[in-house]
Amino acid sequence: MATGRTHRPxxxxxxxxxxxVARLPLxxxxxxxxxxxxxxxxxxxxxxxxxxxxxxxxxxxFSYLGSYGTRGVGYDVEYLVYQISRELGxxxxxxxxxxxxxxxxxxxANYGGFASRGFRVAALIDADPAMAGKPVAxxxxxxxxxxxxxxxxNGVHIGVIATPAGAAQQVSERLIAAGVxxxxxxxxxxxxxxxxxxxxxxxxxxxxxxxAFHEQRKAGEEATAEAVVADAVAEAxxxxxxxxxxEQSAEAKRTxxxxxxxxxxxxxxxxxxTESTDRKGPDGDVPAVMPA
Amino acid sequence: MATGRTHRPxxxxxxxxxxxVARLPLxxxxxxxxxxxxxxxxxxxxxxxxxxxxxxxxxxxFSYLGSYGTRGVGYDVEYLVYQISRELGxxxxxxxxxxxxxxxxxxxANYGGFASRGFRVAALIDADPAMAGKPVAxxxxxxxxxxxxxxxxNGVHIGVIATPAGAAQQVSERLIAAGVxxxxxxxxxxxxxxxxxxxxxxxxxxxxxxxAFHEQRKAGEEATAEAVVADAVAEAxxxxxxxxxxEQSAEAKRTxxxxxxxxxxxxxxxxxxTESTDRKGPDGDVPAVMPA
DNA sequence: CCATCTTTGTGCACGCGTTCACAAAGACAT
DNA sequence: ATGTCTTTGTGAACGCGTGCACAAAGATGG
Lengths: 292, 292
Known about the structure:
The structure is a homodimer. By secondary structure, the first copy, chain A, is an alpha/beta fold. The first copy, chain A, has 3 domains: 5-88, Winged helix-like DNA-binding domain superfamily/Winged helix DNA-binding domain (Arc Repressor Mutant, subunit A); 94-202, 3-Layer(aba) Sandwich (Rossmann fold); 206-275, no CATH class. Helices cover 49% and strands 14% of the residues of chain A. Chain A has an 8-stranded mixed sheet. A 3-stranded antiparallel sheet of chain A has the order 2-4-3. In chain A, a hairpin with a 3-residue loop joins strand 3 and strand 4. In chain A, helix 1 (18-36) crosses helix 2 (44-51), helix 1 (18-36) crosses helix 4 (77-88) and helix 9 packs antiparallel against helix 10 (250-275). Chains A, B: One of its GO terms (molecular function) is DNA binding. Chains A, B: Residues 26-65 bind DNA. Chains A, B: Modulates transcription in response to changes in cellular NADH/NAD(+) redox state.
């Protein structure tokens, strides 16, 4: 999954825990699949497997909605689909606007999952005058100037931001001022919003970085003792640099730290490689300096 | 953020909590911004504000990495950037393949955040022979047949799946067999993977559904007593249908439940509307039946 | 060198979420 | 009817994550 929950502090909504709410769409998808295959009932065990969760967790999740199962049998698929849809508010059709019709915005506009799940793209909005009028996914792009009018005329409460990072905050403010109270943010920025507005963030770069962390850990854990030692050396060297470089400029300090630490790390990696088979830093042997 | 963590059960990696790991990229981004503005040091309070988190949480997060701050002063921006980058494994350059070059895949390929953050698009792969050779984001798309060779030749460990749901599982199996151990999955499916493989899921539809839930709740909470009563009625009616329709077909049961419940819900909504000002189901008055 | 002021690092308590394990409920067969 | 078997629904224990609040550390000024 992705990251970046910016939620109201834990206002357990009508008794349904946030964690449960986040899983309901997952169950719903699994149930819809079963429904299409005309499966009449499903046990918590089966459904849990399909949704990739623990069966006890699933049962507890459902218990927050009510007692919708039958002991000894399981859950009625169609009935459960309806109950979850209703709970999630998908029995109504939500108009959504997408702001920022670049590569990503266009991809979102074309995403089929919208219409089939209770959402309708009410408008596509972009700041580039050259985009205005152009059809994307069968909908003519409108200019940002129209934003407020579009929101109000269509009674839009959910907005998707797919603009560059720089524009996101301002766009969010205009959306909110016009009546939007829920935002799905794809721009790599932390949005500052007033209370009462929900923001969910999807950040590709963050997801990849989390994967990289685990990947690095996997690569490192075969190199046990020696690597740990080498790491400690690198650590100490870096720390030392920090301590002794107290009056140097930040830039000089960073460079010094890199020089001191990187060779040790490289050594650790080399060691790891000779021990294990092929696991190594994917690109080269000496780690590059970090991005800007 | 997005949803869908499919992680190793909680193998707290080298003492760093998963929740902290998930926030490190956030801090890193805020720090990089400060770095570009040549800010030498930053306090936990300031940085926390920029990253949108509690300052105590931030300090605790950093404490897992070591004591990198200076009391009375704050944190050295450059030094911290380096430490976090190293911890996340971004001091090396990770080659990444993107499978499924549709709208979304193309958007991802064009996403600038890649290169600047330690990732490099090693290849774009698509099953459509017509796509083969076409340049997307300056890289020629390659056919799925080449998948294994590409992975192995480039030492790729991280794969991004942007295919339709139907193809995702098979693609993941091929990726894993070829050596990929971390997957970022954009396809709306739960991937079944062996132990040792990390999967993170980004699901637009799920994010929107979670927003819809909160949105519905906001709309409903102005309508207090009467709505609750009406809801209870709908609940009872639905339950009743379920009970009495025990021997009916699933399809008939669902229809009956919808008929019994929906009018009540509509009533509740109507009540809400007269009481509050303009908050209403965005599209029509009668909730549509849920998606297929 | 001492006093003061700022800011970190963390012990502690609390609450949420997860999981286990089992009793209650119902289906189904005899 | 009665017993057996399956599966739900949930009480209780546990562990992780969060946030408070404060002591320790160090900078800064006199």
